[in-house]
Queue: 2 jobs
Job 1
Amino acid sequence: MSVQPAFGEAQQRLREARSICVLTGAGMSAESGIPTFRDTLTGLWSRFDPAQLASPEGFRADPALVWRWYAERRDGVRRAQPNAGHRALAAFEQRHPGRLSVVSQNVDDLHQRAGNAGTVRLHGDILADQWLDPCPRGLSCDTDWAAPTEPPRCSECGNLVRPAVVWFGEPLPYRAFEAAERAAQSCQVMLVVGTSGAVWPAAGLAALARHRGAFVVIVNPHPSEIDHEAHLLLPGTAAGVLPALLDPL
Ligand code: BV8
């Protein structure tokens, strides 16, 4: 399929849309040097399944191992910079206030650092911490009391500190998913960027948008599990396609 007509139609739809919902996945940050989940894990981590590490069971089975995995990923996020795709989305929001909602599956802060401050975080924030369990004393554990172990542990009750992300098998934050559904249901165009469409319920947002009449465009260098929900497929990368698509608008 020649890309040109599809590109032109996508641009026209975006130009006419009062409300645009952008659903992003790990591919959005790939050109910032943050590995996607589909990328094979390298080094020490190649022996592990990310879905196992990113789960309550995985953490309880070996807190120190999972904590080290997150520490390495956090370093990578801190070293990473927003790429041209993040910057194109932020510049569009600056030019067209109120027209763009970014809903991200990503746990990095690159959309926020680029300027899309209102990004809906479906899967939490890798740079933040939370306690693993409610404090058995009925109090709230204080990270100032955390012993400097890996992971930190409350020196009063033994509770563990964990990354403030949504693990597999955990529900998404209610308010975040409600905001994401609202954006998907009310947009005229949904732009899906850099997601395999393999992780639910986030992957269902494209079908929801289409079902409510939105025109769905997918930007991805490879096929995804939700391509059948798209009216247009734009083969390409976030940093390659988004500036060309959005900067002229
Ligand atoms: C829940 C935080 C219920 C952690 C993450 C069957 C149906 C429905 C659901 C399920 C099911 N079976 C199991 C489930 C549940 C499960 C799930 O979806 N499993 C999958 C594997 C089948 N879902 C859950 O567990 C969710 N919770 O359902 O709870 C519940 C309800 C009430 C009470 C209790 C429970 C929670 C899911 C959230 C998991 N946490 N992240 C962390 O990051 O450490 S998800 C994690 O995976 C990341 O956030 C990441 O975003 C996501 C992977 O998806 P993608 O973003 O798409 O990334 P991926 O690597 O897969 O793909 C990258 C894409 O980019 C590719 O397509 C590639 O081609 C493209 N690409 C590459 N380079 C570029 C590019 N695109 C553009 N430009 C480029 N340069």
Note: The pocket of BV8 is lined by residues 25-27, 30-31, 36-38, 51, 54, 105-107, 123, 165-171, 193-196, 198-200, 220-222, 224, 237-238 (CB under 6 Å).
Job 2
Amino acid sequence: MSGGKIFMSTEKEDPSQDFLVETRPKTKRPPLYKVMLLNDDFTPMEFVVLVLERFFSKNSTQAFEIMLTVHKKGLALVGIFSHEVAETKVSQVMDFSRRNQHPLQCTMEKE
Ligand code: TYC
């Protein structure tokens, strides 16, 4: 973030009259959220690949690699989004998995 303090002189004899002006804009970037997929023993690998392609716009190579990372390590980061978008992604994955009777879990956490 840019900004800082500018020293203002009153151009009077007494330097104690000089003052500092705060120039840092009081804005905050909105927090971002990591969306993760979790491993389980039952969801078919092809289904996880499909989820990554459909909801996270991964190509088939990327989707397969992320799926394998989850399978081997227990979880993987699939994307970083605003709170609203992250919530939507998690809901879409959980609904799609439930409707297809797979126990696949998708979670989000503040970055
Ligand atoms: N472990 C699953 C299997 O062997 C595959 C899998 C991968 C499941 C990634 C979930 O997020 C997941 N069929």
Note: The longest helix spans residues 83-99.
